[in-house]
Specification:
Layout (H helix, E strand, L loop, with lengths): L7 H13 L11 E11 L7 E8 L10 E2 L2 E3 L6 H13 L8 E4 L3 E2 L4 E9 L13 E8 H4 L5 E6 L2 E10 L2 E4 L2 H12 L19
Parallel strand pairs: 1-7
Antiparallel strand pairs: 1-2, 1-4, 2-3, 2-8, 5-7, 6-7, 9-10, 10-11
């Protein structure tokens, strides 16, 4: 059995790593608090592997139309990161997950667009419940964790606009950039039993949404 099989054993192992994770909270300093949900589900290819939900944003959106994204958005006043992530999951994918589905929260990631994003890791047993909101989501994809473990799936680039490395994740014949790539990379590392910081990984100037 793969270490990343979608199973009770993997859920418990990942939940334990999330509980022990020494989360870094980024100083707000004018940044707006936001949360994204990294939702683990069973892959849809019959492999039994764990995957996470990734969306392609609707082409009709005013900002970042058609780009890859995790469900998420800005926190409402008085809202916790966890509550915001669950609310966004319901608004974007029609998923009503209980608080018990949350495994943990990873490091804050500051973005070029002025947000401090907190990745909230959740677990979904019944992905058949997914009902994407067509106003926000063009399509939903399940990306296998084990495929991200390939060393060739991660690359770091340099661009003239920043001295910091820019992370890129290969997803099939597509590529993810930060902030999405950064927070997914941190989950990938945690799933493999490693604590890897990502706040110093930069994003390209065009940016991806939260």
């Amino acid at each position: 059995m793969s270490d990343f099989a979608f199973s009770a054993a993997f859920r418990e192992a990942l939940a334990a790593r999330c509980r022990a994770f020494p989360r870094i909270v980024h100083p707000q300093g004018g940044l707006k608090a936001a949360a994204v949900a990294i939702t683990l589900v069973e892959a849809d290819d019959g492999s039994g592997q764990a995957a996470f939900l990734l969306t392609r944003r609707s082409a009709s959106l005013r900002a970042h139309a058609g780009q890859w994204a995790l469900p998420g958005g800005r926190c409402d006043p008085g809202e916790t990161l966890e509550t915001a992530a669950l609310r966004e999951l319901e608004e974007e994918l029609g998923l009503s997950l209980p608080p018990a589905s949350i495994l943990g929260v990873l490091d804050d990631y500051p973005t070029r667009s002025g947000y401090s994003i907190a990745p909230v890791v959740t677990w979904l047993e019944e992905p058949a419940e997914i009902r994407p909101n067509p106003d926000e989501v063009a399509s939903v994809h399940r990306i296998r964790l084990d495929e991200l473990m390939d060393p060739g799936a991660v690359s770091f680039e340099t661009i003239p606009e920043t001295p910091r490395p820019v992370i890129r994740l290969r997803i099939g014949d597509q590529h993810l950039h930060a902030p999405t790539a950064a927070v997914v990379y941190q989950l990938r590392e945690l799933a493999a039993g490693r604590i890897t910081r990502v706040s110093e990984l930069d994003q390209p100037v065009f940016g991806e949404p939260m």
